[in-house]
Amino acid sequence: MFTQSEENYLKAIFHLQQETEDGVSTSSISGHLNTTAASVTEMIKRLADKDLLDYQKYYGVQLTATGKAHALAIVRKHRLWESFLVERLNFNWDEVHEVAEQLEHIKSKKLVEELDKFLGRPAYDPHGDPIPDAEGNLPIMPKKRLSQLQQGERCICKGFNDASSSFLKYLAKLGIGLGTAVEVTHVEKFDESMTLRIDDDEVQLSKTATDNIYVEH
Amino acid sequence: MFTQSEENYLKAIFHLQQETEDGVSTSSISGHLNTTAASVTEMIKRLADKDLLDYQKYYGVQLTATGKAHALAIVRKHRLWESFLVERLNFNWDEVHEVAEQLEHIKSKKLVEELDKFLGRPAYDPHGDPIPDAEGNLPIMPKKRLSQLQQGERCICKGFNDASSSFLKYLAKLGIGLGTAVEVTHVEKFDESMTLRIDDDEVQLSKTATDNIYVEH
DNA sequence: ATAAATTATTAGCTAAGCCTAAATATTTGT
DNA sequence: ACAAATATTTAGGCTTAGCTAATAATTTAT
Ligand SMILES: [Mn+2]
Ligand SMILES: [Mn+2]
Ligand SMILES: [Mn+2]
Ligand SMILES: [Mn+2]
């Protein structure tokens, strides 16, 4: 149906779309996928021809209904495979992303359905991200970023937005994972960095980091 | 490391090599992979440049040690995935091949190792084919083709050589699978077709079919 | 309102993998 | 031994998916 490259673009655009109301820019896509802007322009023309997205020259792209449906199917596969790797194959949550990046492109309706069943139809992946169902419905997450909290507030870590292995390993080193209880002991005015208490340890996190940690409560 | 196409060629050549002493011909590869002879010539030049095979113009190719090792790694993955699909995901043995054809290209040493462990280090795949270990060692199978048996002989089905879904579905329809007991009631002289007794049914199989069924005893 | 900076597009090039048609080499049959 | 048949390679073309450099549009700053 679609090539691996096309699918990677669809998924990237889907993710970037979550963070803007207007069109997804060429440069944001090229940043996300580590390609040049010129390559992106080429590809989005192809995807527009296939009616997977609407493209307004110089004003970015937006997924069509079919484009979004397809992107969600890939996200679903990605997160199911990540769950499989962690739940059944003893992978660490910080080492599954690269492999899932490949596995998400396997084409077999039955495989996805059976994998989902086998895993007990999980609602969230090992990073706390919601897994779309077969129809593309996402279980909505009450999302709040750690960076939005005030001094003195307490919360539980519910998700991580940066899929890079280095970020996840960094968090693991600090003792931060899904379900970790955190208290904001101090917010530094000038760079918005935070001091946090985790159990009885104190750790420092930059704004870049706290922006990518989703919390609840 | 290698592309999907390169890996498919290596695997095809590995399989074809099992059936000849001398070089694997261009046309046999193109037949196996459903490509043209011209495409094969191009690809084997590339693979020869990478020292995965020895190529003598007009006299076919032979895998080098590294080429063979790589082919075995792909065969290993293919058969492990087939086992996973049948043993854990409720696939039928006759519907796993196409998906395994994709899964065999996933690159992750840890994934293969963990999958093997998870499945209990199986020695044979759902078609009765031996699964190479991590070092590329194949558990040797005492292989005899059903077509080699004489009238009156009895045997147990131990493997099937044609991976096509249609062949496997055909056998399933006739009640033939791994472990099925078969008695040769008649061998037709002129086309070498066989009449077989399975339980209390009698079935007819062509030479083409009996050539692709491995038996024991 | 214009100039400068930024962002996006186009043009032109490359490599992998496929193809068909033409040219060549090998094998087979007499 | 040679012609015919068959197999293989070469030549030339196409698509996908990337790149750099040049051009054009938009946005920002003066
Ligand atoms: Mn991917
Ligand atoms: Mn994830
Ligand atoms: Mn394959
Ligand atoms: Mn098999």
From TrEMBL, chains A, B:
Its main location: cytoplasm. Keywords: Activator, Cytoplasm, DNA-binding, Iron, Manganese, Repressor, Transcription, Transcription regulation. PROSITE patterns: HTH_DTXR (PS50944). Gene3D superfamilies: 2.30.30.90, Iron dependent repressor, metal binding and dimerisation domain, Winged helix-like DNA-binding domain superfamily/Winged helix DNA-binding domain. Residues 1-64 form the HTH dtxR-type domain. InterPro entries: DtxR_MntR_Metal-Reg, Fe-transptr_FeoA-like, Fe_dep_repressor, Fe_dep_repressor_sf, FeoA_core_dom, HTH_DTXR, Iron_dep_repressor, Transcriptional_repressor_C. SMART domains: FeoA, HTH_DTXR. Homodimer. This is Transcriptional regulator MntR.
